[in-house]
Amino acid sequence: MSKPKIRVRIAPSPTGNLHIGTARSALFNYLFAKKNKGDFIVRIEDTDLERSGEQYTKNIIEGLRWLEIEWDEGPEKSGKYGPYFQSQRTEIYSDYLKKLLDNGTAYYCYCTEEELDKERAEMEKQGIAPRYSGRCRHLTEEQKRKFESEGRKPIIRFKVESKKIKFNDLIRGEIEFDTDLIGDITIAKDLNTPLYNFAVVIDDYTMEISHVIRGEDHISNTPKQLLIFEALGLTPPVYGHLPLILGSDKSKMSKRHGATSILEYRENGYLPEALVNFMAFLGWNPGDEREIFSLKDLIKEFSIEKTHKTGAIFNVEKLDWFNSYYIKQKSIKELTKLCVPFLAEGRLIQRAGSKFEITDTKELIDSEYLEKIVALEQGRIKKLKDIDEATNYFFFDSIKYEPEILIWKKSDKEATSANLKNVYKILSELKEKDFEPKKLEKILLGICGEDRGAVLWPLRVALCGRKASPGPFDIAAILGKEKTLKRINDAINTLK
Ligand code: GLU
Question: Any catalytic annotation for residue 255?
């Protein structure tokens, strides 16, 4: 007999943006599927119509696409197991609900919220873990009619019999639950409104999901789902629970540890390949020193059995490290393209046909000019967003100087001014084509005395207005003769 096909899924609820937890689950499921020539399915759990929003579904889809975690079946794709939105699967659920009601494993419960609260409080008082007492299990037809005439609306509960339930978790090994702690669970508000634990079982079964790989926060749902599978006489999938993602303080990852929405990372200038590489290490590693893995490499190397049991720490510095690495791998052309939105967004430049207009000076520049600027910072920026702050001085008409920062630490105002005047004179005698880093370096080093800083420091600050930047020859070469001279002149005037 051939082995059944590996089919895995993520089942996000569109009640919020795609966050790092779901994206990590998506990645691990995707890798597991692709490694085993299986299918990866995206199913949208939008049964909670009040809290679900179309904008969140869009955000989830866009986030996964950006990461290039492509699904085989799901939204915007066809597939023979659809529909892939729970809100379109009502009939399927109600058929199975009826089965459970008919075989006596589910029943209508008429208890009101107040009654349940009271029952819970009572149990807590007696020191028992609160759970539903099961008192609607044996209502007579007459009692039901009476409740209904009082206007009570029943919900559907599932009978949880007292027993131990065991399963073999793909990652965590054997896990045992005592169902006594669970109590009869609610599985639907009515025949047309299933709740999570029930709908997920029906979907996983009807979509022939072979493995459910999801966050550890769902581990307490697994015994409930196994019981429902059992009551329907169906074989459950294999389960595997991924370790929680923890912030650097080891508490559960949340907003306060930084961006949690995937598209926010994009807005902040992270590259998808960096995020994918980083997320792969949230609960997995290859068992050796290697750290750089493309999605393709991961498909080859990943194994779900190697996933860790303990919490995965989300370390932003590590993410930045991966991001710098991938930034350095880009060709200048590609990196410049990626940086343009961050420069334009900072309103330094605007697109003007095939060229760009510098906002401050209205000067037109071409992409080669931008490429030179970006090349200067390729090895320094951690995020694409940093390009704005790192290079904005290239796009300003004039630089505002604090006179003190122009002065080299071992020098004074007069000497600084004299050195700048000297540099100005020499550069003004050069031709435009001499504005090339190597040439400028040769010429200017020739006029430096013992202490190069006394000449090169004020020159560099004159050109960019800051204490830290790339070297003066590189900057001057990009600025060209006219702008370089203007800035030196402005600096000299500031020192007066
Ligand atoms: N809708 C659930 C969630 O977003 C799905 C959990 C599961 O994978 O079963 O957490």
Answer: yes
Is a pLDDT exceeding 80 seen at residue 42?
yes
* Cα-Cα end-to-end distance for the chain: 90
Mean pLDDT in residue range 416-429: 96
The predicted-structure confidence for 318-344, as pLDDT tens digits, reads as follows: 999 999 999 999 999 999 999 999 998
Question: Closest residue (by CA) to atom 7 of ligand 1?
Answer: 11
Atom of ligand 1 minimally distant from the CA of 200? 9
Q: Measuring from atom 6 of ligand 1, which residue has the nearest CA?
A: 11
Q: Is 222 in the pocket of ligand 1 (CB under 6 A)?
A: no
The residue-averaged pLDDT of 132-160 equals 95
Q: State which ligand 1 atom lies nearest to the alpha carbon of 204.
A: 9
Peptide bond before residue 194 is cis, with ω within 30 degrees of 0: no
Q: Other C-beta atoms within 10 Å of 80: how many?
A: 7
Q: Is the predicted pLDDT of residue 2 greater than 80, yes or no?
A: no
Confidence of residue 258 (pLDDT cuts 50, 70, 90): low
pLDDT of residue 1: 55
203 lines ligand 1 (CB under 6 A): no
User: Can you give the pTM of this predicted structure?
Assistant: 0.93
| Confidence at residue 447, expressed as pLDDT on a 0 to 100 scale | 87
3-state secondary structure the chain: CCCCCCEEEECCCCCCCCEHHHHHHHHHHHHHHHHCCCEEEECECCCCCCCCCHHHHHHHHHHHHHHCCCCCECCCCCCCCCCCEHHHCHHHHHHHHHHHHHCCCEEEECCCHHHHHHHHHHHHHCCCCCCCCCCCCCCCHHHHHHHHHCCCCCEEEECCCCCEEEEEECCCEEEEEEHHHCCCEEEEEECCEECHHHHHHHHHHHCCCCEEEEEHHHHHHHHHHHHHHHHCCCCCCEEEEECCEECCCCCECCHHHCCCEHHHHHHCCCCHHHHHHHHHCCCCCCCCCCCCCCHHHHHHHCCHHHCCCCCEECCHHHHHHHHHHHHHHCCHHHHHHHHHHHHHHCCCEEEECCEEEECCCCCEECHHHHHHHHHHHCCCCCCCCHHHHHHHHHHCCCCCCCHHHHCCCCCCHHHHHHHHHHHHHHHHCCCHHHCCHHHHHHHHHHHCCCCCHHHHHHHHHHHHCCCCCCCHHHHHHHHHHHHHHHHHHHHHHHCC
**Percent of the chain whose pLDDT exceeds 90:** 88
